From TrEMBL:
Its main location: cytoplasm. It comes from Rhodoferax ferrireducens. Coiled coil: none annotated. The gene is pyrH. Homohexamer. Pathway: Pyrimidine metabolism; CTP biosynthesis via de novo pathway; UDP from UMP (UMPK route): step 1/1. Gene3D superfamilies: Acetylglutamate kinase-like. This is Uridylate kinase.
Length: 240
């Protein structure tokens, strides 16, 4: 049965950096970012408070080929800076679409974006602004999925929504194993014990400990974000 009210008052939306490429080889595809912003705008119109963590895989990954031979921490800082670029592009597209977005960075770059300050982020959310968290956790050796879990817990989000390139969590990576089947739901312990690569173990463990559920769904499926927010059957729920 479809409910008339959103299932959540405050969400932490993890947007895939790689998804921003659309059909391009790297970077930010304009039509794709505009479409993503339309999906976000739809849920803000329902009165849902939205905070976003954006990935950086479309520009740089610390563990990727381009960083071979580099000091890992240096490469990771480059990856975090990539997320700042994505955050700026995303907030710009949001502001153009009529939303009010604020970027907050975990790494100090004061001339470019304001620093992450938790009470300020909470104030923005209460005012109905979309807060885009940039630079991940601010620490190397982590990922933006872990940043999503961390910020989600800090702001008291009721759920982490991982908007990615696949429509849920599968028994194996569906891009490599066509026989993989999708879970409707599974526990954190199941996801971690089976090493399911959809998210890293640090992110799963933090959400498990904080009893913060995760919903994984496809950002390419039109209306999927709204259906998730309305509590409809979409994607995969990972729960305590
Ligand atoms: N068990 C699994 N179920 C679903 N997807 C999986 C699984 N194992 C691995 N994957 C892969 O994980 C990918 C999503 O995670 P990944 O961290 O690479 O991307 P993202 O978070 O969407 O991007 P970014 O890091 O750029 O923000 C999917 O595209 C899928 O191919
Ligand atoms: O807290 C963090 C978040 C990210 N990084 C680095 O940035 C890239 C891009 O992030 P994705 O989550 O892969 O999209 C990541 O590969 C790390 O190199 C980080 O160091 N700390």
């Amino acid at each position: 049965m479809t409910q008339s009210q959103p299932a959540y008052k405050r969400i932490l939306l993890k947007l895939s950096g790689e998804a921003l490429m659309g059909d391009d080889q790297f970077g930010i595809n304009r039509d794709t970012i505009v479409r993503m912003v339309e999906e976000v705008a739809e849920v803000t119109r329902l009165g849902v408070e939205v905070a976003v963590v954006i990935g950086g895989g479309n520009i740089f990954r610390g563990v990727a080929g381009g960083s071979v031979g580099m000091d890992r921490a240096t490469a990771d800082y480059m990856g975090m800076l990539a997320t700042v670029m994505n955050a700026l592009a995303l907030a710009d597209a949001m502001n153009k679409a009529g939303l009010t977005a604020r970027v907050m960075s975990a790494i100090a770059i004061d001339q470019v974006v304001e620093p992450y300050v938790r009470p300020k982020a909470l104030q923005y959310l209460e005012e109905g602004k979309v807060v885009v968290f940039a630079a991940g956790t601010g620490n190397p050796f982590f990922t933006t999925d872990t940043a999503a879990a961390l910020r989600g817990a800090e702001i008291g989000a009721q759920v982490v929504l991982k908007a990615t390139k696949v429509d849920g969590v599968y028994t194996a990576d569906p891009k490599k194993d066509p026989s993989a089947t999708r879970y409707a739901s599974l526990s954190f312990d199941e996801a971690m014990s089976q090493n399911l690569g959809i998210m890293d173990a640090t992110a799963f463990a933090l959400c498990r400990d904080q009893k913060l559920p995760i919903k994984v769904f496809s950002i390419f499926k039109h209306g999927a974000l709204k259906r998730v927010v309305m509590g409809e059957d979409e994607g995969t729920l990972v729960h305590a």
